[in-house]
């Protein structure tokens, strides 16, 4: 059974490295899942993370409307008698946003980590941007035409696709793992009645940085 890695501070000898960090694939897939949490889509939240051959993240994205197209004004509905009132004509998929958000010249030979198997439209863009591998979690639309078409194109273009089976059922991000008080090295922002002079504050800040 899969277990969760809640990463409590483990008691390991200080002189030895931790034996149980998350591995690269888990790390990148988790980044894709974290990006998905930014999505405003009420039904499907998808994230994608692009990694280059040196295991550096070069792009992240999630599904959403194009810049300037308000999440409050454009429709999130999946069904309507009027196609213009559904999300499909407007939403940018996570894969496309991740490619467009790249912080490198290109994404040639990169690997994309994505929660859902890409649709045919994203597959075209993945192929044309020279991404070489897609690592996905869910293939729940495997029977649908857009997935069949995507696989047909990936096979023809030589883009590998692999289903990822996570070694843990969850990764918990616990902000309380850090002791915030111990990080407060600089003096607190002075209040209205604080008599500490600017010179004294500067001196204290210099000391805390040292
Ligand atoms: Zn797509």
TrEMBL record:
Residues 1-14 have a biased composition (Polar residues). It is an enzyme of class 3 (hydrolase). The keyword NADP does not apply. GO terms for molecular function: dCMP deaminase activity; zinc ion binding. One of its GO terms (cellular component) is cytoplasm. Residues 23-161 form the CMP/dCMP-type deaminase domain. One of its GO terms (biological process) is nucleotide biosynthetic process. Keywords: Hydrolase, Metal-binding, Nucleotide biosynthesis, Zinc. InterPro entries: APOBEC/CMP_deaminase_Zn-bd, CMP_dCMP_dom, Cytidine_deaminase-like, dCMP_deaminase-rel, Deoxycytidylate_deaminase_dom. Its EC number is 3.5.4.12. It catalyses: dCMP + H2O + H(+) = dUMP + NH4(+). Its cofactor is Zn(2+). Residues 1-21 are annotated as: Disordered. Pfam families: dCMP_cyt_deam_1. Belongs to the cytidine and deoxycytidylate deaminase family. Supplies the nucleotide substrate for thymidylate synthetase. This is Probable deoxycytidylate deaminase. It comes from Anopheles dirus.
């Amino acid at each position: 059974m899969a277990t969760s890695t809640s990463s409590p501070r483990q008691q390991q000898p200080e002189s030895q490295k931790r034996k149980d960090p998350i591995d690269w694939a888990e790390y990148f897939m988790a980044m894709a899942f974290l990006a998905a949490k930014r999505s405003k889509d009420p039904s499907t939240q998808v994230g994608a993370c692009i990694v280059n051959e040196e295991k550096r993240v070069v792009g992240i994205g999630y599904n959403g409307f194009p810049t300037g197209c308000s999440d409050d004004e454009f429709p999130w509905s999946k069904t309507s008698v009027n196609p213009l009132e559904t999300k499909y004509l407007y939403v940018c998929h996570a894969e496309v946003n991740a490619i467009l958000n790249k912080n490198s010249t290109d994404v040639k030979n990169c690997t994309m980590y994505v929660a859902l198997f890409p649709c045919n439209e994203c597959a075209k863009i993945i192929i044309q941007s020279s991404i070489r591998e897609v690592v996905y979690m869910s293939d729940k639309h495997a029977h649908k035409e857009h997935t069949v078409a995507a696989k047909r194109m990936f096979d023809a273009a030589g883009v590998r696709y692999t289903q990822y089976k996570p070694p843990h059922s969850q990764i918990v991000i616990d902000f309380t793992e850090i002791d915030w008080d111990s990080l407060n090295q600089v003096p607190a922002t002075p209040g209205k009645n604080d008599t500490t002079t600017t010179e004294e504050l500067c001196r204290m800040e210099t000391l805390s940085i040292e």
